[in-house]
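Posting this for the archive.
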Amino acid sequence: MANQAKAGKVLISFDDGLEDNYTVAKSILDEFDLKATFFVSTGLIGENGYMSFDMIEELKSDGHRIGGHGHKHINYLVSNRDEIMKDLNLCFDYLSKELKEKNPWFSYPFGGRNPYTDKICRDLGFKILFSSSLGSFAELNELSVIPRIEVWNSDTIMTLKRKIQGKYNWLNKF
């Protein structure tokens, strides 16, 4: 699975599985013929403000990837080991059994990860892990934890360009 990261490629992802991912983002992605990864909190599917099972199935059938974002969206850095194990197990089981995701990807709720959570995810079968840690990567392999760039509706085009190029100063924001 060792692949070199390709320059000029961007992966679009959404966390939580919020309903607006379907009602707003999907139409924009469709308009530009773009695909994205939707990291859903599996225990919140169908809850008020979250996507329904049918919405997620439609995203899958349209070629989007569905990944895990925990079961109940708990912060693993402030949870005990039993809570973490249960949450990750429920998430993985739902993705693989209900959504039929093979080799699911995982994005940490709140970016909360450490070597213990990485090991549980790997042992369960999550293939690629995503965090909100700053950084970049050059080689994708079975131990990769891919950092992501947060994009906010207040970001200007120049800010987004700097973030993508790795030239954004996160402390001073210039």
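Strands lie at 3-4, 13-16, 37-40, 65-68, 105-107, 128-131, 139-140, 145-147. The longest helix spans residues 81-98.
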